[in-house]
Amino acid sequence: MTPYQIHHLNFLKIAYNNFIKNDPFTREDLATDDEQFIHDLKNLIEDFEAGTGDIRSEGQDVIDRAFRMYPELAHLIARDLLWYFGGSCLHNMPEDEIEKFQRLDEMSFEAEEEGKDFDYLAARSNVFGTN
Question: Are 73 and 47 in contact (CB under 8 A)?
């Protein structure tokens, strides 16, 4: 697994841990839809770790459902995951944010072409102005 993949896997784990600490997932009797969602999020993490399944498609589905079903919890999902999974997830991102993630991808490709190491977190901090 690449550092880039590990970075996103960790964001998925953080999202899962945050979700299970919030309503409705703290209820003793979960509704069927809530139980299925949290189960699917956990399975996505397990498939990602194992390198099995269609991670991109599964991820798009789970993240998109999170935004539709739990908009009050959407802030618990790292924005990086929207970009990583792409597709319908991109509808939840403003254009300026998409442009920043595109720039990160370009920087990564340039480093790869030049045979240089690419520090995603440092580059992300620089592009998003969080350093």
Answer: no
